[in-house]
Amino acid sequence: MDMKSAIVGLINQAIGAAFPGADAPVTDAMLEVPPDAALGDYAFPCFRLSKQLRMAPPKIAQALAERIDAPDIATVTCVGGYLNFFFNRRNFAEHTLDAIAAQPDRWGSSQEGAGRTVCLDYSSVNIAKRFHIGHLPSTVIGNSLKRIYDFLGYTTVGINHLGDWGTQFGKMIAAYKHWGDEDMIASGSVQALQDLYVRFHREAEDDPTLEEEGRAWFRRIEEGDAEAMRIFEAFKDMTLKDVERVYDILDVRFDHYTGESFYNDKMDRVVNELRDKGLLTESEGAWVVDLEPYGMPPCLILKRDGATLYATRDIAAALYRKETYDFSRSLYVVAYQQDLHFRQVFKVIELMGYPWAKDLVHVAFGMVSYEGQAFSTRAGNVLYLDDLLARAQEKALDIIREKSPDLEDKNTVARQVGVGALVFSALYNSRIKDVDFWWDRALNFDGETGPYVQYTHARCCSVLRKADEISATPDHEALTDDEAQALLRMLSRFPEAVRDAAARYEPSAVTRAVTEIAKAYNKYYYEHRILDGDNGQTAARVLLTRVVRDVIRTGLGLIGIHAPERM
Ligand code: ARG
Fold it and tell me: What is the domain extent for residue 181?
């Protein structure tokens, strides 16, 4: 039983005893964690009760304190209108360690999501473009949220909504016909595809017939013409092979690669439904949904030439996902720049009369920059993910060679550490903040970084290897010092961090929690000898080390980072 609920139970009992007839059930959310542990492990503010009971908060606190007596609570004090609870430290250590040890790999998991489905649209890269750093946050935030929801018992559906439709693909085929060849396709180089596109635009400035050729090729894609499809599919295959390499390194998976083109045969239905529901209005030959009453520009549904748009496809995709997966929540992990797009799409779905429009959530994130520089494809200032990952691994390898020359399989560990550094820095701050990536910071083994947390995990593993033959029964009295208690408090609250991350779509809650646990363990490690013979004290400290290892590994797993046993 967790201490928070136990305390809430005690408070409610005391209220019942001190103020019969009071109808003020206290809930978990009303307990606070004091800013300083010296003020107690939990605090209950009595201010809320004071109106109902017509009594000053300090008096209420006093009356309740007198009626609380439980073996797990060492003392209760009254300060101002607060009731402060101090745990019985020995019991708290025992309960916490027992609870975690009972499910070492699943501490913080639950079945709260049982029977409910969450769809997650993330990464969603574009065909014929290399995977650049702008797609990193979506990829890692989505991946982490999927893992977190799985852990909480939800059924999750991971969707890569590929950008695989649009007139640019007609232009690409035209360019390919002029300047490309089969060898280029065989080489699998997405860079070559990107270069084709750039060349198309350069040459089209002098030769306007190119644009017409591009349009003609796009019409052939729309008609399903064999040659156009063969080339288009080849472009798609090349891109997917390329991004899948990156997904493998990042350990990111999808249940479906249903991109924009997947909805080609589902467009008519959307357009007809919008028309039948009286939502379409004509505007300069195009068809739109007027959103003026909601303070937004119109949502463009059909272009003048009858072509559908990004928004039309997103409406079709939302309907398809609801009908196919019957989600309770459908998330779109996409950059903040698309905020208006999603607000428009969600509003249109609401206007279509679908009450589940309220379950659509744009999980937005801020801009990514690199060592202080913003990215811009146009300015040629782009950073590709495979280059970045290769560099991360290389840099990590340098550090490992220097710090642990004898380590086996350095390359694997270097990959896990390099990738960990990158992922961690993308998930450490709340997602709406801009991410500025700096090597020195990210690969630091001492700061608040991925390698630091991984290193702490490896440290625990090393202690446990040495502790192999300890057979004494743990004496929990050995864990009543401040450092052990601070650590235990964080471990016991880890499940709250996981729930919080899911509720706010904020993996950083988990990143922060594991970082705090790592820091608290290192502090403990420096102030206490863990291995000191075969006695109850050592056994207790080893047990603490074991659960720290397990919870860190779980937490890193939830944000998509490996936890090597040696570094
Ligand atoms: N491909 C788009 C881009 O790179 C992101 C797609 C996001 N998902 C969606 N359902 N619109 O900007």
Answer: 166-253
